[in-house]
Amino acid sequence: MTSSDERPPPSQRRRLLWLAAFILVLFGIYSAGWFYLADLVESATDKAVADLDDNGIKAECANLAVRGYPFSFTLSCDSLAYEDDRRNVAASTGKINAATQITRLLSPAAELRGPLRTSVPGMTPLWIDWDDLRADMKLSWPLPRRLSLQAEGLSGQTDPADDTDPVSLFSAGTATGQLRPNGPDIDYAGNFTDLEIDAAAIDGRVLPPLDGSGDVTLKNGVTLIKANPKSLRGQAAEIHELDLSSGTARITVSGPLSVDDDGLINADLTIKLTDPKAVAAILATAIPEQKKEIQTGFAGLALLGNQPSMPLKIVRGKASLGFIPLGKIKPVD
């Protein structure tokens, strides 16, 4: 058999050529679309920065770059900075890499390097750092369907500006948080492990390493995010569970909480204790001036079992634990 007999017939060769040409055209269209979208991202970022500058706010995404062709999008900045002189607020952080696959454009993930430096009126400038910080989200309109953060090796201190000696504030092994719209509300769930609060940050008081978790719903949270309110007045939340523990000692809080138009807190909470004696020992160490009262009060609670619960009611700022009045809470801003 000759080589000419092994060649495909002309009709088949034409089909192969048409298929190759079609694939090349599709690839060309795809490539043009990728670079158009990359240019659109860069232009939108530049416009957002310019709009902020017009409003007296300085923002910077240093050395913005879009990479990842052909199968992903990766947006990176060497550093991020934000400064609002009118409100005297400033923040900056290290390099950010945000990436998404072409097949999952609405599910980007980001990695952020520290430290995060913040300056807010009425607060000492902070320096917050971490070993690893990742974020991922599920994009939707008008708000993401999910926003999650996960950090490892988290720590905080006062910002060592002006050559002052920094004061260590806290460290934590891990910390996670997730925000999710739920109709008009916003749900939050998160936890942390091995939280150590430096005694210098709490007037020399001593606390053991703590673990904690939270599950809270912010009422009308979607509207609040859009409105960017400057006050907590008129806001409400449902605490499904706030949990704080160290060893066998555990405190769990649940119930509704709100702030009225006068800034007065109203709440109908349930507090549950696990191992009251261990809880009392921690509190007595942290608040030594109240050691005797704490030991006396918790001795009575221990008679109710190893997991007693009690109501904590706050009516227009007046708090009571069961039948015991606790005093009045000042109005909040």
Present the secondary structure layout.
Blueprint: H1 3-6, H2 10-54, E1 57-61, E2 65-67, E3 72-77, E4 80-84, E5 89-93, E6 96-101, E7 109-112, E8 116-119, E9 126-129, E10 132-138, E11 146-158, E12 168-182, E13 185-197, E14 210-218, H3 221-227, E15 236-246, E16 249-259, E17 265-274, H4 276-286, H5 291-302, E18 309-315, E19 318-321, E20 324-328
Antiparallel strand pairs: 1-4, 2-3, 3-6, 4-5, 5-8, 6-7, 7-10, 8-9, 9-11, 10-11, 11-12, 12-13, 13-14, 14-15, 15-16, 16-17, 17-18, 18-19, 19-20
Helix pairs in contact: 4-5
Query: Using DSSP, what is the number of strands?
Result: 20
Distance between the termini: 94 Å
Give me the secondary-structure category: alpha+beta
Radius of gyration: 28 Å
Coarse shape: elongated
Main beta-sheet annotation: 20 strands, antiparallel
Percent of residues in helices comes to: 10-25%
Strand content: 35-45%
Short description:
The chain is built from 5 helices and 20 strands. By secondary structure, the protein is of the alpha+beta class.
Give an overview of the whole structure.
By secondary structure, this protein is α+β, with helices and mostly antiparallel strands. The protein has a domain at 10-123. It has helices at residues 3-6, 10-54, 221-227, 276-286, 291-302, and strands at 57-61, 65-67, 72-77, 80-84, 89-93, 96-101, 109-112, 116-119, 126-129, 132-138, 146-158, 168-182, 185-197, 210-218, 236-246, 249-259, 265-274, 309-315, 318-321, 324-328. The protein has a 20-stranded antiparallel β-sheet that branches. Helix 4 (276-286) packs antiparallel against helix 5 (291-302).
